Structure formats: C-alpha cells, structure tokens
Amino acid sequence: MSCLPLRFWPGLAATELWFDWEIDTWPLLMALLVAMSCGLLGAVFLVRRTALLGDAVSHSVLPGIAGGLLLAGIVLENNDHVFGASATMLFVLGGALAAGLASTMLIEALHKYSRIKPDTALGAVFPAFFAVGVILIRLAARDAHFDQDCVFYGSLEVIGELNQVIPTLACSILVVIFFLCFYKEILISSFDSPFAGTLGLPVGLVNLLLTSLLALAVVVAFEAVGAILVIALLIIPAATAQLISSRFDRVLLLSALFGLSAAFFGSWMTVLLEVVGFETARAPTVAVFAGLQFLLALVFSPAQGLLAQAWRKRALESRILEENLLGSIYRLSGGVSSQGFRLKEIAAPLGYPPGKLGGALRRCRARGELDVDREAFSLSARGRERIAGIIRGHRLWESYMIHEMGAASDHVHDAADYIEHHLQPGLVKELEELLGNPNLDPHGSEIPGAEGAGA
Amino acid sequence: MSFAELTGEFFLSLLGQGDAAQATINAILGACLAGLTCGALGSFIILRRMSLFADMLGHAVLPGVAVGFILAGSKSTPALLLGSLAAGLLAAALTRAITSYSPIKDDASLGITLSLFYAIGIWLLSWITRAGPELSSQSSGLNHYLFGNPAIIQTVDLVFLVSAAVVVLALLRLFFKELTASIFDPAFTVSIGLSPRIFDGLLLVLLTLVIVVSLKILGVILVAALLVIPPATAYLLTDRLGRMIALSAFLGALSGFGGVYLDFVFGIGVGPAIVCLAFLWLMTAFLASPHHGVLGRYLLQKKLELKTLRENLLTSAWRIGERGGELTAIPIGELASERGEEPSATRVLARRMNGSGWGRFEKDLLVLNSAGQERACALMRGHRLWEIFLQREASLAPDHVHAGAEEIEHFLDSETLLELEALLDNPETDPHGKTIPPGHSKGRTP
Asked: Does A294 touch chain B (CB under 8 A)?
C-alpha cells in the first residue's frame, strides 16, 4: 500500500497528537451529546428486544427529513444551512416524526391485514421509505445547498459554533430528564408491561415518549453522524453494556458511558490518524471505535466474554477430571481401604488414556488429596472426604431415578455419572429427605455418610 | 424537455447506436437481470424468514468494496466482487458467533453486524476520498456503491450479472425439492437424511453472490429491498411456490426496467426508483390481491354479511309461516314484530332481498319465491338439528343452544346436514318442542 504517506514520528509536535480545541470543541461536544442520548435510548430498546427499531426509524425518517427540508425551503425561502434556522428544524422534526410514525403503522398494517410476516414487512417498508427519502434529497439538493454525502458520512467536521449544537444539547437534556423522571416506569414496562399496567403506570405514555425521543435523537444525530451510522450508536454501545452487566440500571449507565467513550476516543483517533496521514471522516471513526469496544467486550468481558466462558469451561473440565480420578480410586478400593493403584489401573475404568489424568493427578497431589507410595496412588483423608460427597450424590441420584422416575436399575448409572459433578449441597439434602436417607444404592453399594456430603 | 419527449427519447435510445444508447441498454439489461435474480432467490429468502438477514448482508458488504478497491488500487470489478463476497461471508459468521457465544439475541446481533460493517465501510470510503491523489482520483464513482447507478454498468458487469443469474437459477432448479422441504418442513428434511443447515448455507452463499453483483445497480442500502419486496408481492398473489418464484422474478425485472425509465425521465436515481416501483406493486397487491388483498377480503366479508342478513329474514319469515301465516308474501309489519324491530328498519333490510334470487320487496310485502321458501326451510332444519346436536352431544342446556345454532345455520352444507340427520336419527322436534321442517336431502325418507 504505497498510498500511505507515513510521516516520521520523531518530528511530531506534541500538540499534533491532541485536539486542537479551537476547531475541535464543538464537533467533539456534538459527538458526545449524540452518543450519550443514543446510548441511553438504545439500551432500553435492546433490553425490550426491539433493537431493530433504531434501524427502522433511522431509515424511515429520511423522507421526513428531506420532505421537511423541501417544505421549509418552499415556505421559508431560507436554505443557508441544513438546520440553520430553528423554523427549518421544526419542519424537519415534524416531517421525521410523521415519517417514522407512518412507517411503523404501515409495517403493522402489512402484517396484520395480510399474510406477510413481520420481518418481511420490516424488510420491505424501510428500504422503500429510504428510497423515497433519497429521491426527495436529490430533489432538495437541486435547489438547496444540501450536502448529499452528509446522509452517509455525517458532517461533524463542519460544526463550528455553539448554535449548531443547541438542538442536540436540548435533545440530550430532554432524554436525561425523561430517564430521571420515568426511570421506574421505563424499568417495569420494559420487563413486565402487563404488571406495569396493573400498577397504574402510564405504560402507553412512556412507550410513546420513548419512541418520540428515539425519532428526535435520530433526527438530531442525522446532521452529526448521518442517517445510517446512527444505528451503530443506538445498538452497539447498548450491546457492549449488556455483555458486561445484566442489571438494567448498570446497562443504561454503561451504555451511555460506552457511547461517550466511543465519541471521545473515536474523535481522538481521527486526530491521531490524521497525523500519520490517514485522513478519515469523524462520524464513521466514532462508529468504528464503538464497534472496537464491542469486539473487545465480546472477548474480554468478565461476565460474558469468550475468554471468561472458555476459562469457566476449562475449570469445569478440570474439576470433572479430578472428581473422576478420585472417584475411580474410591471405587477400585471399595470405598474403605487405603490401597494404592497405578495410574493405568485408575484410568482403565474411566476409559481414558492414562496421560489424560496427568494434570488432575498433579493438582490433587498438590492439594493433598492423594498419597503416593512409589507408583501407586491412594486417597488421603482429605481426598476421601471430597470424593465421598460426590459418590453420595451419584448413588442418591441413582436411587432417585429408580424410585421416583421409574427407571430400570441398569439404566441409571450414565445419567448419575453426568449429574454427580453438578449436584449442589441443597439438592443433595432434598434428595436425602425425599428418599429417607438410604444407606445402600440400587446396586447394593454403600452410600457414603452424610457427614462426607456436607463437608 | 417535456415528459412525453423524454419518454420518446428513452425508447428511441433503445434502438439507437452510440455510447449514450449503449449505456441505456446496459442499464436496462443490468437492472432487469438484477431484478430477475433477486426476485427468484428472494422467494426462498422471505419464506425462510431471512429478510432481515438479507438487509444486514446488503449493508455489510460495503467494507469489502472498499478493501477490494484499496488492494486493487482501482475500481476493478473482480476485486470489488471478491472483497464484498468475503465481507458478506465474514458478516454472516460474526452474526452467528455473536448469537452463539453471547447472551445477545438474533435481531440485536443482526443490528450490530449491520452497523459495524457499514461503519467500517463508510470509514474506509471517507479515507479513500480524502487520501492522496493516486487513490482518490480513481475513487470517483465509488459512491455509486451506496445508492447504485446503472449508468456505470459495463460489459464486464453484465457478464457477472448473467453468470450469477445462471448459477442462482440453476442451483434453485436443481435443489428445488430439497429447498422447499427445508423451508416448509425442516423435520422432514432431517428425517430423509438432509441437514437444513446445508440449505441455509446454500441460500447464504447465493444471497451474498446476488447482493454483490447487484450492488452497482441498487447500492448497499437498497439492494435488500429487491430481495424482499417483489417476493412479498408475489406471496400475496399466489399460493404456489413455483408461481411465486416466476411472478417475483418477473416483478423484479419489471421494476428494474421501470426504474431505469423513471430515472431517464425524471432524474431521480435508478436504485430508489426501482425500489419505489417495486413497493408500488406491493401496495397494489396488498390492497387489491384477489385472495389475500385487503380489498378482496373486505368485499368477501360484505358479501357474507349480505347473505347472512338475507338468510335471517328468511328464517324470520319461516317462523311466521309456521304459526299459520303466509310464506309467499309476508307483510313488513308482521315481520318487524317477529324480529322485534321497528317496521322502518325491517323495510330497509327487506329492500336488500332484491337481487338475491330468493324473493323481493314489493308493496310493503316481502315476497318469497319457491327457491326462497326452500332455502328458509333448509335453514330452519339446519338450525333445529344443530340445537338438538348441541343439547345431546355437547350437553348444553336447552336454553343455551339457540345462539350457537343462529350462527352456524348459515354455514351448514348438505353433507353436514346428512351427517347430523344420521347421528341424531332423524328427529321430529327440536329441544324447544318445535317441528323440524322436512329436508330435501336424499338421506331423508318422507
């Protein structure tokens, strides 16, 4: 890629690596405000499992925005800037709300009054609205100084004064006030709408306000990040937050935070990239940074991340191997003697190659659960105590399956082998009470004492 | 130029020579081919409930276009196609990975992939347009991949479109049975040893292929529309899959042609024009489709309402006749008191008997002909037999059976009546002690 005119790092002045506040203040503020309100609203729609509503609204308000602009141009004869006059803004807002509402109603009608499925209705109506929007924008661009590219790239760069940020600021303040005033209503109606209704909460009003605020946020975001990139700000920070926490208040807060950080670091990334000669538009960089955060959370999130999942899976597998190892020695020794066995003998009943137990052997020895006499391994008191609880669970489960589920006595071992690693003490206690604390399992083997299980 | 002049010029250019004419012809061929292929494949897509997936894939190929362009250093069609193919498959894999390995649900993961890939694409494009002269001079027209523009269709694009159409149609034909089974009865597909996943994979690959070759005409945002809207239209017009595919392909091609024409005349952009046109067919079918349209079903309902209204008049008349009154010409006053309504209301209803073939409203009388009397008799018979059935077989109290019978009497055909007779052993009186009128069906011996 010879096209990258990389400059030399040592020659850089420190100021080039940081924002130039004279130029960057308003675009950064704009990006932060848009990202925050989109983050908050997006989280609610994601939790409500209507994440694609943002997708929907962002496509379908386009004809409203363009139509509003055209109409404002005719009525006001003032086309200096997209949202220059607040009157134009009102036209655009009204148009966008009308278009958003019309598309929602059309989708509803299509799948309610015909056999078209909801997803197909969604997939048919949005592109159609978008297409109408594109045509109207083309018409608007003919007689107004309207930058068509703004639909795609946004125009954060051209924001140079406070005036241009004011609508966005107002929208963000509205969103925050709405969340502060209606937090309880939003929470309850998001998870249990009928319950919210029985409590007498104004569910319909809250939903209407949410959808209107979404349309409002999409419209003010239109100038900043364009028509489609706003989806990224609505959905990605919210999904990132959901990977970190599953509590509603935290998801809301984290989503807003991830939005803010994407806006800040995305804007900074544009500055840094420019230094190395990689000049990009600001809005898509912010969106890409949000995506980067999402991918990082997907891998590294402590709760749901791929690494955490892999780690938990590995830990479970090691525990199962250890328990199988100890269990095999227990069974070979008949549960009582402290006789030692060689690794090969221990692995054989499990159907494992002896090498598979190496790691488990090392860990159990380190914990003092095994005694070693030359090549022979036997259970120490601590090891016996640990495995007795597992064996107890295994044999109680077998009894349970035969007595309560009517399984044949030669069909229960495999199921018990599987479940023995997952039985919680509480469940073992319930089994004991249900079965009347038996001493022998269905195969006539002794069930180790409850002291062992409880420990 | 006026509308008519432009239309004339458009059709003349189809016959003409030279670059302008060639460009128009290329545009029409390209748009029709894209419409045809998208329409045919789209039928499977909407039935398999992959509409939103197609939408995602349309947006998600954009970074592939950009990367293909950067690597090739020019708008070489094969490079862009390969790039977008890779991006599409990657996006599909990411969507699947997100739903499998995280608590995020399918619709949200579609939204994430869509917006992430689209953002990367726009990000790269924004760099390309600002990059050094050697790249940005080549890049003019790359924006066409956003909205599409068949004016830039060249012979090589047509070759790709034709090949894609052939591949897609051939594979759809070849695996028609298997695809149909996997869509309508996945369990059956598994039982004959085929995995529905294979066919989902096949649809995914074909989908990406079709999207990629159609990009230049429709652009990334609108390409999914042609995969969803014409098949949805066809779905409203026919119940047979084969016909649905043919119709949808035809509508797609028609929209393609119409879109190029509308752009030629009004200059509104081909992609948006195609989508608007396709949506227009959808709305027309939604309103006017004979079986599944709103209008058709409204008329059917009205017809049914009229029939019910007339039949209710007939049964009222029969009840009067039963008490020894006249069944050929019933005074409106008597009919109104039987029905418990104002004579003026009954008069309005009786007027609607005209044209029924059962009788007419005449000189304040409801005059019934023999067909009307027969129908009244059959209705009453069905009504009372049903009452007995409800009482005996459904164990309802005698005073609870009338409402059910009142509704069903309009829908009892002769076959059901025969069954009822046989089941109830030809009773003479109903639960209220009223005589059951004699039937004209073959099952009854007088």
From this structure: yes
